[in-house]
Amino acid sequence: MYELPEELSDAPLPAGTNLLVAGPPLTGKRDIAFEILATGARAGEGSIVVTTKDDAEKVLEDYAGFVGDVEDVDVGVVDCVTKQRGVGNVREDPRVKYASSPVDMTGIGIKLSEFLEEFYQVRGHEQNRILLHSISTLLMYSDLQTVFRFMHVFTGRVQSADALGVYVIDSTAHDDQTMNTLKQLFDAVVEVTDDGDGERTIETAGFPSTN
């Protein structure tokens, strides 16, 4: 079972759950996703971030704001940004692996599998949380059918690994058909909205009952 931040739920999520965090821009979706990862990291779980939006350096810097020193937690980043920007001679290390771009879904899947195998078999983590930020970036580069197929494989991998998958999407960037199609892949959804006065509202669906 995977414990969640208090603002989301008092009930933990079962292993193999895939959770979508959706909402408009600037509503703190990424912060919520990071806090879900950090909740596990503070308990000794592994964190894997697949980033299609920011490079690994920024991801680790921002994640430190939630966990303190990232050297104190086990985190791996699949960076899909740096090579696309034309940065040459990047070297992988225990924390960072590189895919060539957000279009390189095969490469992303391979790097994720490498981290999962390493976290379970080498680093000894029985529980791992995986964040994909963000699905919207994938949809900028590929059509819905391609992204759906990739996400179907991705969520299936999380499920078979008994991990917790967390996925961020900008709900206002896509039409209702796209959102409804993608939501089929997830066990639970966090909807984040802003009332216009800077107050964030969080609604959840598919979570276990706390009763």
Give short descriptive properties of this protein.
22% strand; alpha/beta; 8 strands; single chain; 6 helices; 211 residues; eight-stranded mixed beta sheet
**In angstroms, what separates the terminal alpha carbons?**
17 Å
Q: Which blocks of ≥5 consecutive residues have pLDDT under 50?
A: none
Structural class: alpha/beta
Strand order of the largest sheet: 4-3-2-5-6-1-7-8
Order of helices and strands: EHEHEEHEHHEHEE
How many alpha or pi helices? 6
Report the sheet-strand fraction.
Answer: 15-25%
What quaternary form is this? single chain
What average pLDDT do the residues reach?
92
Q: Can you summarize the main beta sheet?
A: 8 strands, mixed
Tally the beta strands.
8
Radius of gyration: 16 Å
Helix content: 25-40%
Word description of this protein:
The protein is α/β, with parallel strands linked by helices. The protein has helices at 29-41, 56-67, 105-122, 135-141, 144-160, 176-183; strands at residues 18-23, 46-51, 75-79, 96-98, 128-133, 164-170, 188-194, 200-205. The protein has an eight-stranded mixed beta sheet, sandwiched between helices. The longest helix has 18 residues, at 105-122. The mean pLDDT is 92.
